[in-house]
Design goal:
With 337 residues, this protein is of the alpha/beta class. The chain contains 12 helices and 11 strands.
Length: 337
C-alpha cells in the first residue's frame, strides 16, 4: 500500500514538474525582432507598439516582440532584404523603400495619386491593397500585414519660404533614392539630392542639403525643427509605411499564430488611421510653437499638373500599364488618364 501511495505521489509530482517546465518553456518562447528606421515617438514606433501589444494579447502573452529603433538593424532597404531571407521577423518601412523589391507598389508613390486619408485607406485595404500584398510575397518573399498612415509629405527647408515652384530654384532638397520621387522634383525644376535616411539630420544640420520632405509627425519625431525653419504644405505624396513580416518566418508559424499576426496587423492599421486624425493638428501646432513657419502653396495645381504630366507617363509600364492605373483611378472615383 505504501509503495503504491509512494508511486502515486511520485507520479503526481512528476506530472506537476512536467507541467511547470512546459509552462516555463512556453513563457520563454524566443521573441520576434522588429526593425524600425525611425525613433521613439514616430508613427512607426507608435504603430509598432500597438501591433506588439495586440499580438501579445492574441497569443496569451506567449509571443513578445523586441523593437529596434533608429535603424539599429540596418537601413530600411537592408531590413527588407533581411526579412526576405528570414533574418529579421518584422520591419516597418516607407513604401518607397519597398518599390525596388516589388515595383508594382510604386503606384502608391505616384505624385498626387492619393489625395486624402480616405484615398489611402481605399487603396490599401481594398482589392488594390490585396493585389499589392500578393505581389510583394511573390516578388520579395515578404508579406505586408499592416499599413501605417503617416500623412502628406510636406516640404521643409532652412533658407526661405517656398510659396511657388519658382521659389525652389537653387534649393538643395534631400529625397530618398526613389526614382519616382526624384523625377517629381525634376519635374518641378530642380535636381534633388538622394540621401540615406540615417544621414538626413546631419546633412541638414551641416548644410549639405537645405531641405527635405516628410509628414508632420515624422518632422516632429525626428526633431527637424532644430535644423529647419519653413514648411510648405504641399500634398503631393501621402506617406504610407507598411508593416512587413518575413514570408519565411510567417510560413513557419502555426495557422493559429498566422491568424493572430494578421488580426493584430489589421487592428493596428485601424489604430494608425485614428492616431493620424487625432494627432496631426496638435503636432502642426507644436512645430509652429517651436519656431517653424507653415506656408500654403500659392497655386498647388501647377505642382500637380507638372508632376502628373511629366512623371506618370514614365512609369505606366513599370506599374502594370495605363489600363491598370485607370482601374485604380476608377476605384478612387477619379477620371481616367
Amino acid at each position: 500500500m505504501r509503495l503504491k501511495q509512494g508511486l502515486r505521489a511520485w507520479g503526481v509530482a512528476t506530472l506537476c514538474l512536467a507541467t511547470l517546465i512546459s509552462t516555463e518553456a512556453a513563457a520563454r518562447i524566443k521573441p520576434f525582432k522588429m526593425a524600425l528606421g525611425d525613433g521613439a515617438g514616430s508613427p512607426q514606433h507608435v504603430m509598432g507598439q500597438r501591433f506588439v501589444e495586440l499580438l501579445e494579447q492574441k497569443t496569451g502573452g506567449r509571443h513578445g516582440t523586441l523593437m529596434f529603433l533608429n535603424g539599429q538593424l540596418g537601413d530600411e532597404q537592408s531590413t527588407i532584404n533581411d526579412a526576405s531571407m528570414g533574418l529579421v521577423d518584422f520591419t516597418m518601412v516607407a513604401i518607397n523603400n519597398v518599390t525596388p523589391f516589388s515595383p508594382s507598389v510604386g503606384v502608391l508613390t505616384l505624385p498626387y495619386m492619393m489625395q486624402s486619408l480616405d484615398d489611402a485607406i481605399t487603396l490599401t485595404q481594398g482589392e488594390v491593397g490585396r493585389q499589392l500584398i500578393a505581389n510583394t510575397v511573390r516578388d520579395a518573399n515578404i508579406r505586408i500585414i499592416g499599413w501605417t498612415y503617416t500623412g502628406f509629405r510636406v516640404l521643409t527647408n532652412a533658407r526661405r519660404p517656398v510659396h511657388r515652384l519658382s521659389d525652389l530654384t537653387g534649393l538643395k532638397v534631400r529625397v530618398p533614392a526613389n526614382d519616382i520621387m526624384i523625377d517629381t522634383y525634376r519635374a518641378w525644376g530642380i535636381n534633388p539630392t538622394p540621401m540615406a535616411w540615417s544621414e538626413t539630420f546631419t546633412g541638414l544640420q551641416l548644410g549639405v542639403v537645405d531641405g527635405q520632405d516628410n509628414p508632420y509627425m515624422t518632422i516632429h519625431a525626428m526633431k527637424f525643427s532644430e535644423v529647419q525653419d519653413y514648411i510648405t504644405n504641399i500634398r503631393y505624396l501621402f506617406s504610407i509605411e507598411p508593416l512587413i513580416v518575413s514570408e519565411e518566418i510567417y510560413q513557419a508559424q502555426s495557422d493559429e499564430l498566422q491568424q493572430a499576426i494578421r488580426a493584430a496587423g489589421q487592428e493596428a492599421t485601424a489604430f494608425s488611421a485614428r492616431y493620424l486624425v487625432e494627432q496631426e493638428d496638435k503636432i502642426r501646432a507644436e512645430l509652429v510653437s517651436q519656431g517653424m513657419a507653415i506656408i500654403e502653396p500659392a497655386n498647388e495645381q501647377e505642382w500637380m499638373d507638372r508632376a502628373i504630366d511629366q512623371v506618370w507617363p514614365k512609369y505606366y509600364e513599370r506599374l502594370g500599364g495605363k489600363e491598370q492605373l485607370n482601374r485604380i483611378l476608377a476605384v478612387l472615383g477619379r477620371e481616367a488618364i
